[in-house]
Amino acid sequence: MKKRKLSFLDIWNMSFGYLGIQMGFALQNANASRILQIFGADVHSLSWFWIVAPLMGLIVQPIIGHYSDRTWTRFGRRKPYFLIGSVLAALGLILMPQSAMLTAFMPALWVGAGMLMIMDASFNIAMEPFRALVADLLPADQRTLGFSVQTALIGFGAVIGSWLPYALNKWFGVSSEAQPGEVPYHLILSFIIGAAVLVGAVLWTISTTKEYSPEELEAFDKAEGIVHEEEEKGSLLNIFSDFGNMPQTMRQLGWVQFFSWFALFGMWVFTTPAIAHHIYGLPLEDTNSKTYQEAGDWVGIIFGVYNAVSAVFAFFLPAIAKKIGRKSTHAFSLIVGGIGLISVYFAPSPNWLIVSMIGVGIAWASILAMPYAILSGSIPAKKMGVYMGIFNFFIVVPQIINAIIGGPIVKYIYGGNPIYAIVTSGVAFIIASFFVLRVKDTDDTVKQ
């Protein structure tokens, strides 16, 4: 008894919810720093506000993975988590740019940071089971394709989310101007649209995808000769024993993920102030001028570029990995991404940043697919959810470290200039590429 091969349309549908999740996530990534600065955050304190994002991932994803492995309802195993997470994330998206409405309770800056926390917790509730769903439903020889399709949908959703504020302003005439301390209406409307698309896309996946029952998954494992130890009681404390017993491949990938996500966090937090200051020539104190809003919208455009590139490159990843192996594919992609980020420093004009982001897009596509394709072959099906959640430790811990030290480094070492944080992220990508070559890929068809 084997898992049936799914059609491309089936694989597309099972991951379609990720398009909506990533649209909301992209709106957050491209605009949260801008919104927090509008509400009064200093550039060197931005990373401290962003710390709530990885903290939520650290807490939420292993717990969601643990319980989704043990959940079975008439709606399915992973699908209830998709729905709950998407609804909560949508509420956070609607309220964050409108935090000024709640200033009777606390300052808008703190309300905005709280909404950021709610969004990230909810994104994590929805995202983690999507990774496990690919491993649940696809046979081993389709998993690289499954994660690549997921990456492509992530890219498409992120392009829409990143470009939406610019499009509403330039193409539909929605105002991008606002009084000091207020968020422009084109940003508010973008977040509302993002919330609606998020919930709609997740509902599409829920309505078009059928999950295997726990009994069927166990039968598949038996047919493949996979023997499980006596099942443990469903205690959350088992997460700690699972962490201690993680496979060697997962430990090795941890270093790759550490430097990759340290780089990404620095890029997400500091790109808007870096571009506004280094490319547009604005003083760091300027967070309300029309030029600053133009710089923020252009950051959305270039973030959309890297996500568009990742969506396209994701379709080539399976073929490239089949030729040169998954490890070499990932190492190459990270090096290209590192060069792209370092080149931001040398960009003579905003348009040149598009070239820089092409490299970042290649790295982003690989980061979203290759580590999971490598990992999924080294962990048992019954532990897929919890290990995918634990694997998130290697994503959130480097972000937390960057959140703690990134601001002080910019302030005291880089003289307040955030462009050097972007260069540091590029160097971190290249370091990650060297760690990839040390990873043991247990089921890659290309031996390295």
From TrEMBL:
It holds the Pfam family MFS_1. It is found in: Membrane. The chain crosses the membrane at residues 48-68, 80-98, 104-123, 144-164, 184-206, 258-280, 300-321, 328-346, 352-374, 386-407, 419-437. One of its GO terms (cellular component) is membrane. The keyword Transmembrane applies. Signal peptide: none annotated. Residues 249-448 form the Major facilitator superfamily (MFS) profile domain. SUPFAM superfamilies: MFS general substrate transporter. It comes from the Bacteria. The keyword Cytoplasm does not apply. It is a multi-pass membrane protein. GO terms for molecular function: transmembrane transporter activity. Its main location: membrane. Keywords: Membrane, Transmembrane, Transmembrane helix, Transport. This is Maltose/moltooligosaccharide transporter. It comes from Flavobacterium lindanitolerans.
